[in-house]
Amino acid sequence: MSKQEHYEPTWNSLKKHRTPEWLDDAKLGIYYHWGVYSVPACGPNVSWYPFWMYRKG
């Protein structure tokens, strides 16, 4: 196990973080952020949130 590094919420601290080589070479990436729209009782149109967020115009 490697030594765990300590990061601060600053730009300088983030610049010290190296991206893993396997992530740079990845051909496909899937990222989904859980937000308010993921709460089932939030409303009937909540599932369309990402569609409208990225729609042009």
UniProtKB/TrEMBL annotation:
InterPro entries found in the cross-reference section: GH (IPR017853), Glyco_hydro_29_N (IPR057739)
Annotated Pfam families: Alpha_L_fucos
Any single biological process term in GO: carbohydrate metabolic process
Molecular function GO terms recorded: alpha-L-fucosidase activity
Residues annotated as domain Glycoside hydrolase family 29 N-terminal: 2-56
Record's protein name: Glycoside hydrolase family 29 N-terminal domain-containing protein
Organism the protein comes from: marine sediment metagenome
